Amino acid sequence: AVLGVLVSGRGSNLQAILDAIQAERLRAKIGVVISDTPGALALKRVAGFDIATTVIERKKFADRRSFEQAIAAELQLHHVELVVLAGFMRILSSEFIGHFPGRIMNIHPALLPAFPGLDAQAQAVRYGVKVSGCTVHFVDEGVDTGPIILQEAVPVLDGDDEHSLAERILHVEHKLYPRAIGLFCEGRLRTEGRRVIITEKR
Ligand code: GRF
């Protein structure tokens, strides 16, 4: 499938997706990388590859609607089939989501529905949970509320702060996101209400 990856920053998940494609562990193609932040490290990660990149800044648009329309137009221009949010720090409206029904994925650094929103790893440390992890889910109108595709747990250790926990989770994110995208590309994800069923490999 053709992927459109939306980023705002570091882009380590983008890197993991790129690596999986290069290693032929993931049969997909990145059609375009869109950043809402100029100079994001994520953009540098695809430099040297034959991948289109675009910066679309919120402040260049009068309102969220026209900003999102510009993103949607760019994705459509590149025939994107799956929109991959990889550290994209903005909430998308239901109008935008309606353009790509069942075709937007996000990764969140906690075991949802625990600790949605910002600073999930700090939330987990503050709460005192003994296990956290990451979640790949389809995006719906809510914040980190969409149907869950894959989750993996990591321990929270006594000495952890948000940074050490984030690092442990990130390591797992980098395996889980390419795997979830692969399942989508193989046509193996079926949604029944809130539940995502992973069908057998044919
Ligand atoms: C990751 O922790 C991801 O779970 C969250 O934002 C972070 C993005 O990191 N949504 P990166 O830009 O992929 O390095």
Automatic annotation (TrEMBL):
Keywords annotated in UniProt: Purine biosynthesis, Transferase
Active site, UniProt feature: 108 (proton donor)
Keyword Transferase tagged: yes
Gene3D superfamilies hit by this protein: Formyl transferase, N-terminal domain
Amino acids binding (6R)-10-formyltetrahydrofolate: 64, 89-92, 106
Top enzyme class: transferase
GO molecular function, a single term: phosphoribosylglycinamide formyltransferase activity
Annotated EC: 2.1.2.2
NCBIfam families in alphabetical order: PurN (TIGR00639)
Protein name in UniProt: Phosphoribosylglycinamide formyltransferase
Organism: Anaeroselena agilis
Gene (UniProt): purN
